[in-house]
Specification:
This protein is of the alpha+beta class. Helix content is 32%, strand content 36%. It is built from 2 helices and 5 strands. Strands 1-2-3-4-5 form a 5-stranded mixed beta sheet. The radius of gyration is 14 Å and the shape is globular. 25% of the residues are buried.
Length: 117
Amino acid sequence: MTEARRALGKLGEAAAAAYLQRNGVRILAANFACAAGEIDLIGKEREALLFIEVKTRTSEAFGPPHLAVHQRKQRQIVRVAQWFLAERRMPETACRFDVVAVTFPPGEGTPQIHWVR
């Protein structure tokens, strides 16, 4: 992954975290990593624990960013969530898996954000 793509991803994660917080989500962890993989954000909304994948792009030329969370990535997110819950001894916690699609259109300072619950 190039440094520019990594920087864009970090910018997207920061924009997504700020957006989620404005919409009532308390961010518990960012970039949680374990042997099973990595998840961008973990948050809490009411009684549910949210495992959130952030996808960032500069255009929708290849489709909306959230469509890039394919089946293999979904399985990895579930494994990371299971690891997180086991590590924290939270087996009976209500969970949800969300995707936040962030698009930074060229020439615009404000990203377009779409939260898929």
